Amino acid sequence: MELIWPGNGHFPGDGIAWLPDQRLVFTGDFVFNDRMLGVHPFSQVVEWRKAFKRIAALDPRFLVPGHGFPGPLAKAQRDTGDYLDFLVEKVGKALDDWKDLGETTDMLGDASQFRYLKFYDGWHRRNINRTYLQLEGAQ
After folding, report:
1. pTM
2. Are 96 and 83 in contact (CB under 8 A)?
3. In this prediction, what percent of the chain has a pLDDT beyond 90?
């Protein structure tokens, strides 16, 4: 077993446990399957996205997430990786286009491709808001 720090994410300092012979990774809160991830004020969305890509680069056969059910990389990509891409790319584009926070949240507030995730209604708009504030603060 290898303990790896792929970067900051949902919580600063989270790590993963990688079993290379089995191609199995215990991801902790870097991966949320079946439910919407939550961006907290201490979460680092851009770094989380990079960390997810580092985990995916291990090419695991199976992931045990911090939240949700274990599954293959394709599921983790769909439920977490694609959503992190959405947040960073879409919110980043809105900032580049000089959209304000309210406009951005309204514009991106209906992401039907992620509506199947549990807790979507409670987290999605909040995630847009917190991502916007993080990206704006980094400019």
Report:
1. 0.96
2. no
3. 97
